[in-house]
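Many introductory courses stop at the sequence. We go one step further.
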Amino acid sequence: MLIALADRKAKAVRLHESLKATPHRAIVPGPVLGQVWRPAPSTVHALATALRDCTVPHARSSPGALRPTAAGQPVCLLCSTALDMTEWHRIGGALGTADLPPKKRPDVVDAMVAMTAIRHGSAVVFTSDPDDIGAYLSALNAQDVHLVAI
C-alpha cells in the first residue's frame, strides 16, 4: 500500500482517503516503513503526507492509533503493546510453514504484517502481495482478516 501511495496510484489514494473517517488510523508497522522509505524527494513527500493519517506503533513521533474524540484521547491497547514472545514464535513458525508462491522467500516483515492484522481482528490488509500475506495468514490460522489487492 505504501508503495502504491508513493506512486500516487488512484486506487490506493482513494482507499487511503476513505480511511481518514475511521476511528482507528491505518497501521504501518515500523519495519514496513523501513522497507519502503527512500530519500528521493517525491517518495519522502508522498509517504510523509500519507503517514500523517497513519500510526506506526511504538514510534514516539507517530500519531496515536485512535483519533481524538469529544470524550478525550482513547488508546488502542493492541497498538500500544509490543508483540510478545509467543507471537514472535508464531511468526517464526509461519516463516517455515507458509505455502508461499513459487520463487518467494520467507519474509519476516510480511509475517509481522499478518500477525498485526490478526491481533486487531476484523482487519483489512491493503497489499500489493496478497498471495504472500495470504500465505502467512493461512499459516497463522487467521479467522477474520481480509485482504485487498492494490
